[in-house]
Write a structure and sequence with these properties.
Length: about 70
């Protein structure tokens, strides 16, 4: 997802999607350790997506604190 698409989501949706990505990352790590993972670049993509979502989530929370 692009940052623009993530910003259009609500805080709850971002948190849910982040949890889903973390679960997928954990499964891929297990596959990597077991030697079953063929596409190792997916790990990097997931880590970056999680970081992007966390950043936008924190920005939204800070904005809500400043307004409220």
């Amino acid at each position: 997802m692009k940052a623009k698409e993530i910003r259009a989501l609500s805080v709850e949706e971002i948190a849910t999607k982040t949890d889903d990505l973390r679960d997928e990352l954990m499964r891929l790590r297990f596959q990597q350790v077991a030697g079953q993972l063929t596409d190792t670049s997916r790990l990097r993509v997931l880590r970056r997506q999680i970081a992007r979502m966390e950043t936008i989530l924190n920005q939204k929370k800070q904005l809500a604190e400043q307004e409220g």
